[in-house]
Design a protein that fits this description.
Strand order of the largest sheet: 1-2-3-5-4-6-7-8-9
Structural class: alpha/beta
GO molecular function, one term: carboxylic ester hydrolase activity
CATH class: Alpha Beta
Order of helices and strands: HHEEEEHEHEHEHHHHEHEH
Shape: globular
CATH superfamily: Alpha/Beta hydrolase fold, catalytic domain
Protein name: Acetylxylan esterase
Organism: Streptomyces qaidamensis
Helix content: 25-40%
Number of domains: 1
Number of helices: 11
CATH architecture: 3-Layer(aba) Sandwich
Number of strands: 9
């Protein structure tokens, strides 16, 4: 697929206006206040994985509406000191899978929490273990359209709340330095990490690649691929529902979360990405932290000939180097 979005010179200064609802902050303050009324952690159970150099626990924490959300928590087996924690969010249609699937951050010396996606896990990978008991509002079968006609009922209200609660949960786990908690994700996971950065003011860093839910209105005009295609397909049948859908989506717009974030940020983007168009990533990057009165360290890496895979392992290596330098600097 050739490059289809804005030219690079325009992407680098792309700062679109966002139709942000007047009660955006009140909506999320109320949602998170309700979710935070109880202790996040429910259970922490060690599991045998066959890995000698990694210790893993099956974690359950309370997410949206107190619903139990599953996660894998892993640490290097011989680490005795408090470790920085990487909270990772999985992509669209994925669950937490099996505990030995994602070991990069543990091998780099971090504590690692991989959150399960409620009501997902049936499209890719090795499945998930967290149902979504609230998925009964009007909308389509896919997560991107569940409850689409009401912000209160929308799937991503629940999933973003779970993501924020995952940060609270990891900070209560053994051997974690709560002051060095990092949010990481690609695609949907990148959108969740960016939302966490906008809702958790003391996050140590955020690392996102090809984030979903950024520049949503433009993405719906550009692509029929992936989750945006599900939304377009739903609206093609439910004619006249656009206004309600757009209003709901404005409460989960990643650029709005990026404007409120203040943690150091590392971005990656493939310029031929038809799943999460690059203009959305650049919009979030260019408007990052603009409402916070801060000027956090941030950088973006673009891959001109890559699509949704972005920089793949090259980008991961850049993330590892960047985060190590950032956190080592904090220790000094």
């Amino acid at each position: 697929m050739p490059a289809f979005d804005l030219p690079v010179t325009e992407l680098e200064r792309h700062r679109p206006d966002i139709e942000e609802p007047a009660d955006f902050d009140a909506f999320w303050t109320s949602t998170l206040k309700e979710a935070g009324q109880t202790n996040a952690l429910v259970s922490v159970r060690p599991v045998e994985t066959g890995l000698r150099l990694t210790r893993t626990w099956d974690v359950t924490f309370r997410g949206f509406a107190g619903d139990p959300v599953r996660a894998w928590f892993s640490r290097p087996a011989e680490a005795g000191e408090l470790l920085p924690a990487v909270v990772e969010f999985a992509g669209y249609g994925r669950g937490r899978g099996l505990p030995h699937e994602r070991l990069t951050w543990v091998n780099a010396g971090y504590a690692h929490l991989l959150m399960d996606n409620r009501g997902q896990g049936g499209q890719y990978g090795c499945g998930g273990d967290t149902p979504d008991p609230h998925a009964l509002a009007p909308g389509g079968p896919g997560p991107a359209v569940r409850g689409l006609l009401s912000a209160a009922d929308y799937h991503y209200r629940r999933l973003i709340t779970d993501a924020v609660r995952a940060v609270a949960a990891v900070r209560g786990l053994p051997g974690v330095d709560p002051a060095r908690t990092v949010a990481v994700g690609n695609s949907q996971g990148g959108g969740l990490a960016l939302a966490v950065a906008g809702l958790v003011p003391d996050l140590a860093a955020v690392l996102v690649t090809a984030p979903l839910l950024c520049g949503i209105r433009r993405a719906l005009d550009l692509t029929d691929a992936g989750p945006y295609g599900e939304i377009a397909a739903y609206l093609s049948v439910h004619r006249g529902a656009e206004h309600a859908a757009y209003r709901t989506l404005s409460y989960v717009e990643g650029v709005s979360f990026a404007r409120r974030a203040q943690a150091p940020a590392h971005f990656g983007v493939g310029l031929r990405d038809t799943v999460c168009p690059p203009s959305g990533t650049y919009a979030a990057f260019n408007r990052y932290a603009e409402l916070t009165g801060t000027d956090p360290r941030k950088e973006i890496h673009a891959y001109p000939f890559n699509g949704h895979e972005g920089g793949d392992a090259v980008q991961v290596r850049r993330q590892l180097d960047w985060l190590e330098a950032l956190l080592d600097g904090r220790r000094r």
